[in-house]
Fold this protein.
Amino acid sequence: MIEIPPRRTGYGTVRIADSRLWETYGSIGLLSTRQGLAPWPYTNWDRAARRSLTRAGVTIPGWLAPLYRIRGGALPSFLLVVPSPALSAGRDLAADLAPLRAVSPARVREELDQWFPQGVPAEVRPLYEDPRARLAELCEFLPRYWHAALAPYAAPLRVATEEDILLRARILATQGPERLLGSLRGRRLARHGDTLRLHVAGASGRIAVPDVSRLVLVPLVFGRGAPYAASAPDGTAAVAYRAEGAAVLVGETPPDRRGPAGGPARGDRLEILLGRSRAGVVRGLVAPTTTSDLAATLGLAPSTVSEHLASLVAAGVVRRRREGVRVLYELDGPGVALLRHMDTRRRVNAPENRTS
């Protein structure tokens, strides 16, 4: 368990920042800690990423995968560069590699000794014995991994992260830091009195992050099972949480599954019931999105999508909400039920309660 005393930060210094490096680590952890395919909504991405990595000849370093598995998906903080809350932060993976290369061998060994008081496991020993070489290997691997496994999803990942940041920023601005911390998804991150606690699977004891002057929250689409926390010498502490919108990774039906003459695929009850374009709109709303983004994704005219959305809102299948100047649409409870029972291609979870 990692403990951060928020009272020292004054709460007014809570910020939200994305990080391509942390997102990349989250996706690697998902591949490294499971024997089979990842659960919904990561299943399609998992299958495609493994194929792409194999074709590209990209292999996760032998010491890195065990590090994830041994500690339940967690990573030591020397691997996690604290992201800057600047608007342009986190978009360029290369920007985080320089400080990663500069991590001292002494720090690597010190943290590994803390993580493994009974002795560093044999699988992780290469990192302990030659930190500089292994970190150089990691810095060479990460861009190749990103290109093969995540670059094809860069646009939807960016959209999902930006939408989540807008949601959290509005909560922070209108309801304050305590409400923001209470809105974060997942049971690993919670407040206990005046302390923010990050529960790390497989970790024993407590690690206190001292002298915190600023808290940075890092949204991750691949935040499931990614209990990351890090601190910087200037007193900044960064903590990851699971962002909304991971369903952007679900994907759509491949063209070869269509029926004859471009009709609904055999057994596609949702298309038979609603028609192809309206079924596509419903499927496209598993994550909040705008009319224009949905139209671009589906290849439909914005006016057509707008007409479908109006009907679906009137039917109570879709709900509409405003985030600043943006109008977002997403499935409501009946829409989730419709998709769950009529669409055999995917499993859909009920929408979570949102702070309005």
About this structure: The beta strands are 2-4, 14-16, 189-192, 195-198, 207-208, 214-220, 229-231, 236-242, 318-323, 326-331. Residues 2-246 form one domain. The chain is about 45% helix and 15% strand.
